[in-house]
Amino acid sequence: MSSLKISPLTKIGSAYKELSEAFKASNPAAVAVVLGPTGEVGREVVRNLLSLGAYSKVIVATRRELEYDGPNSDKLVQVKVDYDNIEKHKEDFKEASTCFCCLGTTRGKAGKEGFYKVDHDYVINSAKMLKENGLRHFSMCSAQGANPSSMFYYPKVKGQTDDELKQLGFERLTISRPAFLVCEREESRPMERFFGAIISGVNKLVPNLMSVSTADVARAMVSDSFEKVVQTPVVTIYENKDIVEHASRLD
């Protein structure tokens, strides 16, 4: 499998930069780990983290090598991971203080069992391992409509995963629930292009209701990790509108 090139941000808003610098000053030894760094949201998270340079290290748990030659490239640590045996990598992530979990697939790509393994098992098993390591903040990219009681399989699994994460007792748990993700996908998904055209029309009437860019999801997740929390434990849930509004305040 070929490597994946990730480019740095071309523009960083002043508010975003100030948050980043304040976090770095208060947490000079903070280490981030990114699960699922080659997915659409994951690679946006990686490019934000490296472009800003607020974390002393950015550890990516990947099966595919990343290419990055922008600012803070020396902070990138790549771990070739076996998500089926994540416990074997416990030592690799022992320094991590914040995890950005962007793991995810589709039933169409992985089948029903494969989808559950990635979107539930990989997430929960990784979270348990990181919690045992002392990780303080787990930031999860979930999905709009996540509900363990849903009659539909996709939101049901997403909801089950979210609920099980809440039971692990992280000092901070952030769950972001984006709607339809707008991006230039590396792989072709004809049905997503079809629904994307429909959603684009709806958004002209009701902005930010049914979609959000992967860039905004990543910016919201990363900037949330910079914010000070007075009292823990705390669970924060961002619905789609919240994600868009959060990202808009970073310019």
Automatic annotation (TrEMBL):
Pfam families: NAD_binding_10
Recorded superkingdom: Eukaryota
Topological relation to the membrane, as annotated: Peripheral membrane protein
SUPFAM superfamilies found in the cross-reference section: NAD(P)-binding Rossmann-fold domains (SSF51735)
InterPro entries given in the database record: NAD(P)-bd_dom, NAD(P)-bd_dom_sf
Domain NAD(P)-binding: 36-222
GO biological process, one term: import into nucleus
Location(s), subcellular: Mitochondrion outer membrane
One GO cellular component term: mitochondrial outer membrane
Family to which the UniProt record says this protein belongs: Belongs to the FMP52 family.
Protein name per the record: Oxidoreductase HTATIP2
Organism this protein belongs to: Zancudomyces culisetae
Organism taxonomic ancestry: Eukaryota, Fungi, Fungi incertae sedis, Zoopagomycota, Kickxellomycotina
